[in-house]
Amino acid sequence: MKKVIEAKHLSFGYDNKLILENINFSIDKGDYLGIIGSNGSGKSTLIKLLLATLKPSGGEIKILGERIDKFRRWDKIGYVSQKANSFNTSFPATVEEVVAANLYSRVGLFRRPGKEHRKQVDNALELVGMREYKSRLIGELSGGQQQRVFIARVLVSQPEIMFLDEPTVGIDAKSEEAVYCMLARLNKELGITIVLISHDTSAITVHANKIACMGNKGLIIHDPKEKMTEEFITELYGYGVNLHAHRHDCRNCIRKEVV
Amino acid sequence: MKSNLVKTACLVLVIGLVFAVGCSKQTSEDVKANHDGKLSVHTSFYTMADFAAKIGGDKIKITNLVPSGTEPHDWEPAPKDIASLEKADVFIYNGAGMEGWVEKILGSINNEKTTVLEASKGLKLLENADKDEGLQYDPHVWLNPALAKKQLEAIKNTFVSVDSANKSYYEKNYNEYILKFDELDKEYNQTVASFSKKDLVVAHEAFGYLCNAYGLKQVAIEGLGAESEPTPARMAEISKFAKENEVKVIFFEELISPKIAETIASEVGAATDVLNPLEGLSDEQVKAGKEYLSVMRDNLKALERALK
Amino acid sequence: MLEMIQNDFIFQYGFMQRAFIVGILIAVITPCIGVIVVLKRLSMTGDALSHSSLAGVATGLVAGVNPILGAIVFSIAAAFGIERIRKTFPKYSEVAIAIIMSTGIGLAGILSGFVKNSAAFGSFLFGSIVAISDFELYIVIGLSVLVTLTVVLLYKELFYMTFDEEAARLAGMPTAIVNFIFTLLTAITISISARTVGTLVISSLMVIPVASALQVAKSFRQTVLYSVTFAVTSTVLGLFISYYAGFKPGGTIVLIGIIILVSVLAYKNIVKKALIQRTVKVNL
Ligand SMILES: Nc1ncnc2c1ncn2[C@@H]1O[C@H](COP(=O)(O)OP(=O)(O)OP(=O)(O)O)[C@@H](O)[C@H]1O
Ligand SMILES: [Mg+2]
Ligand SMILES: [Zn+2]
Which of A217, A223, B42, C23 could be A21's S-S partner, Cβ–Cβ 3.0 to 4.6 Å? Predict the structure, then answer.
């Protein structure tokens, strides 16, 4: 299998506080990786490292076979950030303008989006059920609606890898289900590699083919997919969760590999 | 990236320090000069300094507040200027609203030690027609040699009263210069008599006394207080006036931007020339030996070229 | 009234013709840059850069280099300074402006003390829309072509980078280059136009029409178009009124801009009230 993301001896800290220490993992093409871990365990930080928003303090990252500092094909990467609505909500842009902007690599420098581009925008909005809102100002939508637009924005550029940092926060249950279905379909039918951070452990166990647990400055990928136990989640998050799954032995591997 | 920022910050700091050191040096020199037995005379702007020098010669040490080449109407004193004024024996300013900042300083210095002379006091002043400029009178009296003579006299009297030991020296200088001023006045009268035109277009309304003395008429783009942005209506009016009266030259001053004069000149197909209101001379002009009398003669030549 | 206008035809004067040409050109390009600057929360950029270019004029005069060149160089340095500091304080863009503006004012203050001939200084600072030389006219025309072309060609890049710089980079946009071009262009536009039409006109045209546009626009595209429309309207009206009423042109242009802004706000309020009233009536 082709490795689309590879991290070796990756370390990172804000100022002097170490958040990630000597992390090694790889993601294959077509993977659907779910990342779980308690608040502050470094999930968002890891994704920001993979997006080159942050620079690692040690180790190296390869994306699509290239070292991250040399990597230029960012249009192949899609990203929905945690709290996407932290943007300037009074920004005068329509839903259509926001989504169309991400078509950049298809339209090209100096050119304007044409008819078929507008169709792609419509399709992407259709997928997230926001088509009738396309002429509305982005700031005038509800938080969940905005989140859906940001997902459509990533979809429209048909990336090879999609990073989603808690994308369904603030989205109602029905639409949440729709988003997960859509991601699964993109993964299965178009072969898009998906990296999903979520605290929704049950959704992850259902959809992801690999699960990464983060904690104690480390990360462990369970591969092939194993089912998580209630004790494991309790250990990871520090409180009890009801989970319909069977036993798997994670407690030890976290301690073993991290220390 | 961060280190670049630090470097830039250091650079700025160093530059700042160098300037600060440079400035403080200057001040200490000024202070030293006050202690060599000469009468310490402070003046507001160039012409006052020139007049004081003409009377005081080497018996006085002059400190001119408005630096050379600076338009005095909107100059503001720095704390160091006010501090140095404290040490002056005599402070001479023109008055009549020329130096708006003077009142402010006078309140803050020790008047007992410093004799203050308002050189335009007692002269018959022209009313300011354009009241909304905030000036009641036209202050530019020195541009009429006859009134300038009166200012010389007031300066002489002040020096004599403060430093009576050198009375005869001051009086000798005064008597020499009033002859020269009379001569200048005569030249003006003779030359102006040959003019075919009487209207001059000038940058700011500084030449009222000059015009009054010799029967000329000024049309000023700006009011008494030098530079600001003129209204297009005013510019149109002046362009029209210049066209109708076949004005050949639009005068500007070295201390304010020539842009407006140039715009009007190109509008009416006239040339531009300098007419110096003697509010300040540049260092180069002073080095070249320019002073009141020679600049007034340059002005006369410029008027001749424009109006003959 | 008509007779007065006929007798005193505004366009008979070359300086008024140039005022209209330069005024309209500046009113087209300034808000284009202004939209982006305002949305990046850097509204005071105009002031900061023109103050920094003052320091450039002074440096040029002290060092014996062309002062206009000095102004442009300092303005560019200041613009990149703002960009750099903005990255250090991502959520407090106005900090960057404040730092650069005070540096500019401070430096200009110190340096101007070293300028021997303040007349030269004054004449480089002074800009008036009714006193524009042929040289300035050509420079402004050239500048307008440059800015318009850039804004048209890099429209979607500029839009996306303003909305979400991170996402723009991930969309594959050459954000570093576009940012560089835009910053450079902003600096050059402000330093040249401030010397030409005056600091007041330039810094207000960057912000006031954009503020009005933000009240009514329903998209980014409309924001740009409305801003330009409002700016051109206030410039043209301002020039007419200042000519026939005898007001200073710079201030008149700015005040017309403010009147437009107030009218837009009032209009919005009336529409809103009407809407609420209608809804209430229907419900009754
Ligand atoms: N900008 C920052 N500066 C300093 N420390 C930070 C910064 N952002 C995050 N941290 C710290 O880094 C750690 C990891 O943060 P991160 O946002 O990656 O957590 P997370 O796993 O995404 O948590 P959550 O589930 O709440 O989203 C936290 O302890 C946090 O306090
Ligand atoms: Mg997070
Ligand atoms: Zn004057």
Answer: A217
